[in-house]
Design brief:
Order of helices and strands: HEEEEEEE
Number of strands: 7
Number of helices: 1
Distance between the termini: 26 Å
Radius of gyration: 16 Å
Largest sheet: 4 strands, antiparallel
Strand order of the largest sheet: 2-3-6-7
Length: 112
């Protein structure tokens, strides 16, 4: 969860979503183990600017475990199937950061 601060734009919807998850885990000392997200089919959409870009991607996540503070497994999460997303990126302090993650409707057009 700590690495997400290096990926998300501060104050963005993406950062807020990850902070909500962290807020559920940290007070109890719980953590996720083995969670990864893989992106493929990455393509820039038209209309980008020097400070903002939207990428069409295919995303899949691995299975993972929720562990307690002692490392005992509390729950297991299944891998997710691939799904199409749109990543909104903003250029902040010389680096691209994730601002928002938008679902794509089943038709494959626009946010869902």
């Amino acid at each position: 969860m700590e690495l997400l601060g290096d990926v998300n734009a501060a104050g963005s919807p993406a950062a807020a979503a990850d902070e909500r998850i962290a807020g559920q885990l940290h007070p109890s000392g719980h953590r996720l183990a083995g969670f990864t997200s893989t992106l493929s089919g990455v393509a820039a959409e038209d209309g980008g600017t020097p400070d903002r870009a939207v990428l069409a991607v295919t995303s899949a996540t691995s299975g993972y475990q929720t562990l307690d503070a002692a490392g005992a497994v509390l729950a297991a999460g299944a891998p997710s199937p691939e799904r199409r997303l749109r990543l909104v990126l903003v250029f902040v302090d010389g680096q691209w950061r994730v601002s928002d993650i938008l679902a794509v409707r089943a038709s494959g057009e626009g946010p869902g």
